[in-house]
Amino acid sequence: MVSVCSSAYMRWLAGPYVPHDHSTYRCVNPHYEGVASAECPLYRNDQKVRFAKGMLQTFNDDMPKRLEAAVRNGVISKTNRTYYFEYRNGTRLIPPALQEEIRRLFRVNKWTEEVKFDSYVEDYDW
Questions:
Q1: Within 13 Å and on the Cβ side, how many CA atoms surround 50?
Q2: Which among 116, 107, 104, 114 is positioned nearest to 52, based on CA atoms?
Q3: Quick check: 125 and 95 in contact, CB under 8 A?
Q4: For residue range 72-81, what is the model confidence (pLDDT) as tens digits?
Q5: What phi and psi values does residue 79 have, to the nearest 5 degrees?
Q6: Selection from 56, 103, 111, 57 nearest residue 78 by Cα
């Protein structure tokens, strides 16, 4: 067993995952109280989740224009205008909670068909 400082060891473990164009990076203090528990404010689950990517195909020709505007305004009120267009164009992934909120906005506005996003991606929700 090698005896090394735990914070140096943590940086050594994280180092290979840092892009080569970054001169510095932050590391979680392994001595912080509660760092290994789910109550830690920095805790992130390591299970992949299903993100939606893009909403260009979500708004189809059969849909009333008022519905598109209501959903757009609802998403903008939950996030912001820039994020809405990034979600719509697929440059920002749509997390599962926001996918459900978008589906709820459609239901509230009387849309009964299934809400389909352009594609889906499995990734970490970090």
A1: 6
A2: 116
A3: yes
A4: 999 999 999 9
A5: -125, -105
A6: 103
